[in-house]
Design brief:
The protein has helices at residues 2-11, 27-32, 81-92, 119-126, 136-144, 148-177, 184-197, 265-291, 297-310, and strands at 16-21, 46-51, 57-61, 74-78, 100-103, 131-134, 200-201, 207-210, 234-243, 251-259, 324-325, 351-355, 358-361, 365-368, 371-375, 380-382, 392-394. By secondary structure, the protein is of the alpha+beta class. The protein is elongated, with a radius of gyration of 24 Å.
């Protein structure tokens, strides 16, 4: 791994990459460096410096000398804080008086996912004459890019989501047709059972939202608080899960439906705008990767958002277009965002992200259509199945 990191540092013209953590403050560092997940939690600061060439350096507190023993490199022990500062300065400036060093830092906290190093530590490192550069694109390469096995597991999970959401719509129809009381919570639990049957799981339960509830993007029913599902209702289902296997990655989709034979015109109109924004963004990514053109997360957001703004619904699209997907449903790679942040990270091969525009009409209903897009070296594709083309009419 160290050789690969050093190659990436050369390509980025960086003198090194400084990893730092205090009481597991940086999960990105833990993941990339393969920190043990069991045993004693480090309670003192540690640093791991990978230079562009040569041997890495481990800087450790005297009472926790073995924290980084699974990694190669020179070991430096500090006890008084002055010695920590001395070790850091000497290590970072060994080859240059003013080195350019990557850290999990984002200027002005523009990308919160990357803002793992506290301001005081940034000030300390800068006091040594070091220029700190965001590790954003390095993190994507070493934290967010998938291996072949992960891609295969994602594809299986994505197919499972498509099957589960369609089964959930059928279950709604069966229950209402039979006169069985049906609620958002009932269908949420039904979907979780679908996951279990397919060897899938999720840290958080899916969203099943009726009518006005669907206009709240992060609404979620509970056993205590939920709404009934009846004929004439609009139903949004947002579901995400991964296979119950080591190192698996998530899939994440959203579909919408109407309980009745005829979908209302307003629902159809809003869905079509959302769908068109989704498809415009998808085609932009496909064309860019086919042409070998570099694109950024914020650009894809703009393409999608422009469609919705031109249709007159811009003020009702109140979140970013999409997010990175990895072992957590919201990963640490580039997000499709020029609203909540300006994500200027490059979309790199072997990563995946959602495209999920939405229009939320408070008190009425909210439409979101979500797909996952995986990008390879020169291609991009939607995973799981055919994206939703029209609101599903549930015949009950």
């Amino acid at each position: 791994m160290i050789d690969t990191i050093q190659q990436a540092l050369k390509q980025a013209n960086l003198d090194g990459w400084l990893f730092y953590s205090f009481r597991d403050s940086d999960p990105i560092a833990s993941n990339i460096l393969g920190m043990p997940t069991e045993g004693h939690l480090a309670t003192r600061r540690w640093f791991y410096y990978v230079p562009q060439s040569g041997e890495p350096t481990r800087i450790l507190h005297s009472i926790e000398r073995g924290v980084l023993d699974h990694l190669p490199g020179t070991k430096l022990i500090y006890l008084p804080w002055q010695q920590l500062h001395s070790h850091l300065k000497n290590t970072l400036t060994a080859t240059s008086a003013h080195p350019r060093v990557a850290m999990q830092y984002s200027a002005e906290a523009a990308i919160p996912y990357l803002s793992r190093v506290d301001a005081g530590t940034v000030e300390l490192i800068r006091s040594f004459g070091v220029e700190i550069v965001s590790s954003a694109d390095l993190v994507q390469r070493f934290e967010s890019a998938w291996g072949d096995e992960q891609l295969a597991m994602h594809d299986e999970a994505a197919r499972g989501l498509y099957e589960s959401v369609k089964s959930a719509f059928e279950e709604i129809g069966k229950r209402i047709k039979a006169g069985t009381t049906t609620t958002e919570y009932d269908i949420q639990q039904y979907i979780l059972n679908c996951f279990a049957d397919r060897g899938m799981f999720s840290k958080d339960p899916p969203i099943v939202a009726v009518n006005g509830n669907s206009a709240m993007p992060h609404y979620g029913p509970t056993a205590e608080q939920h709404s009934a599902i009846n004929k004439g209702d609009f139903v949004l289902i947002d579901l995400w899960a991964k296979l119950d296997r080591p190192n698996s990655v998530y899939a994440d989709i959203t579909w919408t439906s109407f309980v009745g034979e005829q979908v209302p015109d307003e629902v159809t109109k809003v869905f079509n705008v959302v769908r068109d924004g989704r498809d415009a963004a998808t085609e932009y990514v496909k064309e860019a990767f086919a042409a070998g053109r570099t694109i950024y997360g914020w650009q894809v957001d703009d393409v999608c958002r422009n469609v919705i703004q031109k249709a007159g619904y811009g003020e009702y699209f109140i979140h970013r277009t999409g997010h990175s997907i990895h072992t957590e449903v919201h990963g640490n790679g580039a997000n499709i965002d020029n609203l909540e942040t300006k994500d200027d990270r490059v979309l790199i091969p072997r990563t995946c992200f959602s495209i999920e525009p939405g229009i939320y009409l408070e008190g009425k209903f909210g439409v979101r259509s979500e797909i996952d897009v995986y990008v390879g070296e020169r291609e991009a594709r939607v995973t799981g199945g055919e994206p939703q083309k029209e609101v599903v009419a549930i015949l009950a």
